[in-house]
């Protein structure tokens, strides 16, 4: 992604996958069971793939699926849209796929400047690709799946999602923030400048407080700082990271994996079972690879999947 921001909070079962993101930020809070894997990240806070300018907000989604690919400037997942705005509220079982739209109030494909808002959706699927300027807002979603690829400047915000999955790869500048996670695992590899600690570290600071069962492994780190507080069962592994900051606080069972990160910041707080920087997530999995500049924030997600 070019410039992208994604906000996820309170996620139940969630997985996020992002690839090839320019400028992106990712913030996840209150995650139950979550897994986050980051590989080859430049400067990233989230995991998105080739995103231009995009903003996406999801809150309280029932069963929903969203796929975004090749987005220029967008706040939603659409494909090749000119000027479009879409607003959906109180939907039971719904699927929306739009392609090649000029000026429209909906979410489709080939969108230039577009905004999409979805609220109170039961079972829904949305697929958008190649978006210029777009904004998407989803609230009260139960089961949701979202896939974003090739996005320029994008912002994604998800809140109150049931079952969710997010996968991020190839991110340039990214920042990841996780708080209140249930089961979480953190693994970082190929880090240059990172706030974490472990093997082959140049300038690094590691602070752990009130940890139950925790394991942290970092390899080949330049400048790294890692702060963990109040962790139950946690594992952190960082390798070959450029500029990265990782902070974990109050983690129960957590796993986080980052590899080949340029400039990245990851903060986890209050994690129960999680593998990503997410907040209030039940069951969630997040994988970021090769991220440019990206920001991802998920809040209050139940069951959701994002690719």
From TrEMBL:
Residues 1-54, 62-171 have a biased composition (Polar residues). InterPro entries: LRR_dom_sf, Spore_Coat_Assembly. Residues 1-171, 278-307 are annotated as: Disordered. Coiled coil: none annotated. This is Uncharacterized protein. The lineage of its organism: Eukaryota, Metazoa, Spiralia, Lophotrochozoa, Mollusca.
């Amino acid at each position: 992604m070019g410039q992208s921001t994604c906000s996820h909070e309170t996620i139940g079962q969630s997985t996020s996958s992002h690839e090839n993101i320019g400028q992106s930020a990712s913030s996840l809070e209150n995650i139950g069971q979550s897994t986050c894997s980051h590989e080859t990240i430049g400067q990233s806070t989230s995991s998105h793939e080739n995103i231009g300018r995009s903003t996406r907000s999801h809150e309280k989604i029932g069963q929903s699926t969203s796929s975004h690919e090749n987005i220029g400037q967008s706040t939603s997942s659409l494909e090749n849209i000119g000027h479009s705005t879409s607003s959906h509220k109180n939907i039971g079982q719904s699927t929306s796929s739009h392609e090649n739209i000029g000026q429209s109030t909906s979410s489709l494909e080939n969108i230039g400047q577009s905004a999409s808002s979805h609220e109170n959706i039961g079972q829904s699927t949305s697929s958008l690709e190649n978006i210029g300027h777009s904004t998407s807002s989803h609230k009260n979603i139960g089961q949701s799946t979202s896939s974003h690829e090739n996005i320029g400047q994008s912002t994604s915000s998800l809140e109150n999602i049931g079952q969710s999955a997010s996968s991020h790869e190839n991110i340039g500048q990214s920042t990841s923030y996780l708080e209140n996670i249930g089961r979480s695992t953190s693994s970082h590899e190929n880090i240059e400048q990172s706030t974490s600690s472990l093997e082959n570290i140049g300038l690094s600071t590691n602070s752990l407080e009130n940890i139950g069962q925790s394991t942290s492994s970092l390899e080949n780190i330049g400048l790294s700082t890692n702060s963990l507080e109040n962790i139950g069962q946690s594992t952190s592994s960082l390798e070959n990271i450029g500029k990265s900051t990782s902070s974990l606080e109050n983690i129960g069972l957590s796993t986080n994996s980052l590899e080949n990160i340029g400039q990245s910041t990851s903060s986890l707080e209050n994690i129960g079972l999680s593998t990503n920087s997410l907040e209030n997530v039940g069951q969630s999995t997040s994988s970021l690879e090769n991220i440019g500049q990206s920001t991802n924030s998920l809040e209050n997600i139940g069951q959701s999947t994002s690719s």
